[in-house]
Amino acid sequence: MNNVTINEIQRFSFDNSNVRGERVLLNDAYQEIIKRKAYPLSLEKLLGEFVAAIALLRDIVKIDGVLSIQAKGNGFLSTLMTECDEHQNLRGIAQWDESQEVPESISLKEVLEGGYLAITIQPRNGQRYQGIVEIIGDTLSECLEQYFSQSEQLPSRVWLAANGAQCGGLFLQRLPEEQAKEGDEDAWERLTHLASTVKEEELLGLETSELLHRLYHEEEVRLYDVKTMQFGCSCSRQRTLEAVMSLGSAEIRELLIEQGSVKADCQFCAEKYEFSENDLADFLGDQAKTH
């Protein structure tokens, strides 16, 4: 399966229970994200877990807009962020102190010392919502489980993995008791116990139907339609121009004098933008002339 392009998320449920799930597996969409920068392998893996996590969350949170996960801290890794919009476009970035040697094995808590996790819901039309989760566990999975416990008050379990080639995730959630079916009171404990036996190579190497069969061959699992995901960046020349104008006219004039133009790169996709004096003339007005 390693040579097959697969960028999919699929929802599933268990008959006669109030447990639902999601499984995501990405390869080239993930690789498109990590190839934009020379990441050490350990950061590729951690960023891959964030990519898988935002894909899972995006399919759970139904909004017409953008959902993001951002981790910030005081360790050598200052920021790690992933986003997904309503069209299943994924993007992500990690920023770290490149003067420091990155360990081969890292935990979220170590690299984001004293930090926090922010999950932001930004509808196209509507009010922005942000939930803050303290980074108290060693893994992103633990942080997300804490987030769901605080925000939705629904028991949830998350399993994430990445290896630089693929990233994947598995999500289980127990719905409110009124949605439970009679006759299977132990379903949550049993299903999460079975999911806890999943191996990284299974999470990253098996198609969803095969993975669920291995974990739940004695359960009645209902699979729903597959959704395709892909890398996609929301940057544009106009948005970048607006960001440049936020620098203010004095700094823009100084850059024009020094460089002859104002250059800006998208941190997510590495697209390069350049703005000439003529491009900025309307903003600078009579002060546009630099020579």
UniProtKB/TrEMBL annotation:
<comment type="similarity">
    <text>Belongs to the HSP33 family.</text>
</comment>
<dbReference type="InterPro" id="IPR023212">
    <property type="entry name" value="Hsp33_helix_hairpin_bin_dom_sf"/>
</dbReference>
<keyword id="KW-0143">Chaperone</keyword>
<keyword id="KW-0963">Cytoplasm</keyword>
<dbReference type="InterPro" id="IPR000397">
    <property type="entry name" value="Heat_shock_Hsp33"/>
</dbReference>
<dbReference type="InterPro" id="IPR016154">
    <property type="entry name" value="Heat_shock_Hsp33_C"/>
</dbReference>
<dbReference type="GO" id="GO:0044183">
    <property type="term" value="F:protein folding chaperone"/>
</dbReference>
<keyword id="KW-1015">Disulfide bond</keyword>
<feature type="disulfide bond" description="Redox-active">
    <location>
        <begin position="266"/>
        <end position="269"/>
    </location>
</feature>
<dbReference type="GO" id="GO:0005737">
    <property type="term" value="C:cytoplasm"/>
</dbReference>
<dbReference type="Pfam" id="PF01430">
    <property type="entry name" value="HSP33"/>
</dbReference>
<dbReference type="InterPro" id="IPR016153">
    <property type="entry name" value="Heat_shock_Hsp33_N"/>
</dbReference>
<keyword id="KW-0862">Zinc</keyword>
<comment type="function">
    <text>Redox regulated molecular chaperone. Protects both thermally unfolding and oxidatively damaged proteins from irreversible aggregation. Plays an important role in the bacterial defense system toward oxidative stress.</text>
</comment>
<feature type="disulfide bond" description="Redox-active">
    <location>
        <begin position="233"/>
        <end position="235"/>
    </location>
</feature>
<dbReference type="GO" id="GO:0051082">
    <property type="term" value="F:unfolded protein binding"/>
</dbReference>
<protein>
    <recommendedName>
        <fullName>33 kDa chaperonin</fullName>
    </recommendedName>
</protein>
<keyword id="KW-0676">Redox-active center</keyword>
<dbReference type="GO" id="GO:0042026">
    <property type="term" value="P:protein refolding"/>
</dbReference>
